[in-house]
Amino acid sequence: MSRQHDDETHEHDRGLSYDLPVLARRRMIRLMAGTGAGLLPLMGCTGSSSPTAVTSPSATGTGTACAAIPEETAGPYPGDGSNGVNVLKESGVVRTDITSSFGDSAGGTAEGVPLTLTLTVVDAASGCGTPRKGAAVYVWHCDREGGYSLYTDGVTEENYLRGVQETDDKGRATFTSVFPGCYPGRWPHVHFEVYGSLQDALGATAITSTSQLAFPKDVCDTVYATEGYDASVANLRRLSLDTDLVFRDGHDQQLASVKGSVQEGLTASLTVAV
């Protein structure tokens, strides 16, 4: 089933209008952090005999400098109460598997290539060496067709592909999901908010950081060659990380490390310094 986003919605999600000050702050953060690290290379295929096995380098540097994850727009579909519905107050939102809807929703399940997503929250002030145990991460992203639950026509009664996890003693929050599609105007991405505690997350208060994770191009190409992602092929062809209005001023801190295969599932990871 194909779904379209209107032009006004895309301008909001691409960071135009009120989101421009956020992008300006990102540039300032990068200037302060320095440019020695440079941009990391994009993912490359492994030497596996399987043409659909993929891997990508870590998006976390090893230098002494440790800049906080860039602040980004939450877009028009946050579901955190800032733009209408607030899923964070719903019983059941704290969960690892976010592929299906929960609570009083329509009970649907998102289809697509299996994806395990791990965000590791660390303390930027300590040089990224200290995990943020007991923090909370709220993630949300579009489905295979490019629609966002709670907002997009056809899935307004669903709340899949949204969930909260408390970080463990290593600062990790892990979610089971499906690989998102690519809709017109935006590079494939996952939104996330970091909170100081699970209590803060469930109260939708005191957000520590709002940002986005990007997927490497070769991973996207591999996934979008599979069934159900037909529209994403043409949409991705018109985009690049260097022209995306969120990631074009630098994506080294937001580019996920991805391993696995479309048959057995992909694993994406990102270190998030706050």
Count of strand segments: 11
Give the strand content: 15-25%
Shape: globular
Tally of helical segments = 5
Q: Which stretches are poorly predicted, pLDDT < 50 over at least 5 residues?
A: 1-51, 58-64
> What class, by secondary structure content?
alpha+beta
Explain how this protein is built.
This protein has 274 residues and is of the alpha+beta class. The chain is globular, with a radius of gyration of 17 Å. Helices cover 15% and strands 23% of the residues. Strands 1, 2, 3, 4, 7, 10 and 11 form a seven-stranded mixed β-sheet that branches. A four-stranded antiparallel β-sheet has the order 6-5-8-9. It has five helices and eleven strands.
In short:
With 274 residues, the chain is of the alpha+beta class. It has five helices and eleven strands.
What is the secondary structure topology, with strand pairs?
Blueprint: H1 7-13, H2 20-33, E1 44-45, E2 53-55, E3 114-123, E4 130-131, E5 136-140, E6 162-166, E7 172-178, E8 189-195, H3 198-202, E9 207-214, H4 217-224, H5 230-237, E10 257-261, E11 265-273
Parallel strand pairs: 3-11
Antiparallel strand pairs: 1-2, 2-10, 3-4, 3-7, 5-6, 5-8, 8-9, 10-11
Descriptive keywords:
274 residues, disordered N terminus, alpha+beta, four-stranded antiparallel β-sheet, 5 helices, seven-stranded mixed β-sheet
